[in-house]
Amino acid sequence: MVSVGMTKMLRLLGNLIRGGSSPAKAVVGSRNYADFASEASFDVKKCDLHRLEEGPATTVVLTREDGLKYYRTMQLIRRMELKADQLYKQKIIRGFCHLYDGQEACCVGIEVAIKPTDHLITAYRSHGYTYTRGVSAKEILAELTGRRGGCAKGRGGSMHMYANNFYGGNGIVGAQVPLGAGIALACKYFEKDEICVTLYGDGAANQGQIFETYNMAMLWKLPCIFICENNRYGMGTSVERAAASTDYYKRGDYIPGLRVDGMDLLCVREATKFAADYCRSGKGPILMELQTYRYHGHSMSDPGVSYRTREEIQEVRSKSDPITMLKERMLNNNLSSIEELKEIDANVRHEVEEAAQFATTDPEPALDELAHNIYCNEAAFDVRGTNPWIKYKSAS
Questions:
Q1: Is 111 helix (H, G, I), strand (E, B) or coil?
Q2: CA torsion through residues 145, 228, 267, 294, sign
Q3: Is the pTM of this model over 0.70?
């Protein structure tokens, strides 16, 4: 004898099948949120420590809600960078373009561990951070293509993107590090419970201005997290050839440091939480080294395979990819289903395609707007152009 509940279920399945849906889709459609676990615990790699008695937690919790959010954000950054690659090869993006695919766990893990009111400054591989700081894919791609709808009105391009509490996107190697210390000084001066995350690459780690900044930050106990994104290659040179010491987390000497698995989002998240708490407590700066990897070359003009092998890149992709690692954790611990993640992938693809469409059709800024937005809330003034006879009017 068939129960009333079973009768309703059979009728529902019959209606779905007659409507053109397959039985498999009907089963997936009947699954609800109660079928998934709300959270799961994971062991992450222990951080190497310098001048610290204890470090970040090695057993961490991931909720289903957070996992889905992290997965979508990383996938969108990955898809956006691949679209930028395509637009650059079509000569729609001009100038410099440094892509971030492979390093998504760094920007997402950092962002979810700090507050929106905290500050962040980085180098020119900045598209991922621009997105996590609140700028849409549409505005980022439009900035890459030099359009009026870009986040810097089409005048910044790949290397100079900005948002609230996000200061770029800086083209001069290592120059953002003293700027980050200055932002941290402002946080302390105005007695705000805010910190500055200051990022640079392994290629910039030998810059003298970085060590000068370490010294001042420690003397003044600035609330600054210095983060070296070590993706193993500065332009076309491996870290072993460029640095006598590749222990970048120890480079601050008197500044405490952490070496973190930068391919594991959860590891980055916990380490950044630990570092942020350290800075907020008034102890001064802390240094983090994120061991990560970039799939593209240094920039779009670098094929990326003359100083490393394709096999090396493929090995990292197959064994350490940050998106794959998160996906497997969620699937293996019943935090999501493959169908749900595929739906996220489809939505991300659609969003990026729409953004690319906007970025290729939005008008370029007018020439007479070239000097706009130099200052905020300032009276208009004349700005000299490429010669003394050309002048542009500034406007806030």
A1: helix
A2: positive
A3: yes
Tokens standing for residue 237: 């040179």
* C-beta of residue 169 within 8 angstroms of C-beta of residue 160: yes
Q: In terms of Cα–Cα distance, which of 208, 266, 202 is closest to 42?
A: 266
Enter the DSSP assignment of 34. Answer: G
pLDDT tens digits for 188-203?
999 999 999 999 999 9
Is the separation of the CB atoms in 130 and 99 below 8 Å?
Answer: no
Q: How far apart are CA 44 and CA 274, in angstroms?
A: 14
| Matching residue, tokens 């996107």 | 169
pLDDT the model gives residue 134: 97
Closest CA to 256 of 229, 276, 285: 285
Tokens of residue 260, six digits? 């973190």
Q: Which residues of the chain have pLDDT under 70?
A: 1-31
Token pair in block for residue 227: 């983060």
> What is residue 163's DSSP assignment?
B
What DSSP character marks residue 300?
T
Closest CA to 276 of 182, 163, 187, 176: 187
Residue 242: which of 250, 256, 231, 253 has the closest Cα?
231
Per-residue tokens: 253: 């000497």
Written as one string, the DSSP assignment of 199-233 is EEETTTTT-HHHHHHHHHHHHTT--EEEEEEE-SE
183 Cβ partners below 8 Å, 6+ apart?
119, 121, 167, 196, 198, 224
